[in-house]
Design goal:
With 221 residues, the chain is an alpha+beta fold. The chain has a domain of 90 residues. The chain has a 3-stranded mixed beta sheet. A 3-stranded antiparallel beta sheet has the order 3-4-5. Helix 3 packs across helix 4, helix 7 runs antiparallel to helix 8 and helix 8 crosses helix 11. It is elongated. 40% of the residues are buried.
């Protein structure tokens, strides 16, 4: 069992917060620590973190998939991140997808600016982890990291698939590294990014994957 990283305990103490009340361990992986959203907001206020350029990157009401990007500033440093929210990773009917996407984007920016993103996660992402089976905890963490790294491509792919533009979707899908494509292939009921219909299109016999496979063969010839 790991201990809370010193870098987060020192910051929490500086803000007058208790690490025991602000943090907890991921049940499926005791080496992963979660920090609650309220504490991250207080840390951001203490450090005078400011936000600019909050943009909607994806708004797909048909599939309940949304994404918001934001840039955060701390002194002369700036960091950028995207927060995504979908029916697969937000609990409850009538969920506030945009609000959750914004929270996730800002929390990720805070963690980056404070140098914590390699050590802890925000609680706004923790629902996915809590709902995962014990043996799937690490995989879901990898999935969420891959989704953050490739969200621009994912947003385009979702848009193209919604328009049934399989060729454009295949071209955007090819931009995602193969190892990340495999990591992202998690069922939406387990917090996966793709909807059930989208996963069908990305299967080996799906429209998008068939075009991509054909293009790869032609390029290799």
């Amino acid at each position: 069992m790991s201990t809370i990283p010193t870098v987060i305990t020192d910051l929490l103490k500086e803000a007058g917060l208790s690490a025991q009340q602000s943090c907890w361990q991921l049940p499926q992986n005791k080496n992963v620590w979660i920090v609650n959203h309220k504490s991250l907001e207080k840390l951001a206020a203490m450090k005078d973190i400011r936000y600019t350029d909050c943009k909607v990157e994806l708004a797909d009401s048909t599939n309940n998939a949304y994404a918001v990007s934001v840039i955060g500033h701390l002194g002369d440093r700036s960091e950028w991140s995207i927060g995504e929210a979908s029916a697969g990773n937000v609990r409850g009917a009538g969920a506030y997808y945009f609000a959750m996407a914004e929270k996730r984007a800002k929390d990720r920016v805070i963690l980056k600016l404070l140098g914590l993103h390699a050590d802890v996660y925000s609680e706004e992402e923790a629902d996915d982890f809590k709902d995962a089976k014990p043996e799937g905890g690490d995989l879901l963490i990898e999935h969420n990291a891959a989704a953050r790294d490739n969200w621009v491509s994912i947003a385009y792919i979702k848009g193209y698939m919604a328009k049934e533009d399989w060729a454009a979707a295949a071209e955007a899908y090819a931009e995602i590294p193969k190892e990340h494509r495999e990591i992202l292939n998690i069922a939406p009921s387990k917090g996966g990014m793709w909807t059930t219909d989208e996963r069908k299109l990305l299967r080996p016999d799906g429209e998008v994957q068939r075009i991509l496979t054909q293009e790869l063969r032609e390029n290799a010839a």
